[in-house]
Amino acid sequence: MIVLGIDPGIAITGFGLISLNAQNEPELITHGVINSTAEGDTSSRLIYLYRELTELIEQYQPDYSAVEKLFFQKNQKTAMAVSEARGVITLCLAQHNLPMAEYTPNAVKQAVTSYGNADKKQVQEMVKITLHLEDIPKPDDAADALAIAICHLGYLQMQRLMEDQ
Q1: Is the dihedral of CA 4, 57, 52, 18 positive or negative?
Q2: I want to staple 118 with a disulfide (CB 3.0 to 4.6 A). Which of 75, 106, 107, 113 is the partner?
Q3: Number of domains making up the chain
């Protein structure tokens, strides 16, 4: 089972792919960012995001995906741009028949650290520990995407346990 976690952004979208190893523990496949800052206008950035995400999906063939919900943005212009990116991401996932879950930042923090108000450093440290990494994943957007994937993997594991009872 492979889970793709996505931290949406108009300029930088984080991604993280994890799976379950033989011990039924989360294991890192890959992580990184789709950086569209060199693409110029918003339309070009969205096309670039779509193409790069399509390549990731086709290369790694994930079984599930999880995307961070746009929870709150102080800057309305930023919120609109991230919403556009989320729309492109949602379209791409749907076109690949990839089941998608959405989680608020607090839900991800709760799932990864057991504390819904954890700060970014606490989340990053728990991602490192959970995936048995030597260092905190970089950049921050990729670490956030891995946290989203870990959150969804936990949900899937719990769902399986409930079905087995």
Answers
A1: positive
A2: 113
A3: 1
Tell me the CATH number at 85: 3.30.420.10
pLDDT tens series, the chain, 165 aa: 999 999 999 999 999 999 988 888 899 999 999 999 888 888 999 999 999 999 999 999 999 999 998 765 566 667 788 889 999 999 999 999 999 999 999 999 999 998 888 888 999 999 999 999 999 999 999 999 999 999 999 898 888 878 877
**pTM over 0.70, yes/no:** yes
Range of the domain at 87: 2-164
How far is residue 140's CA from residue 120's CA, in Å, rounded to a whole number? 9
H helix intervals, the chain: 42-60, 76-95, 105-113, 120-130, 140-164
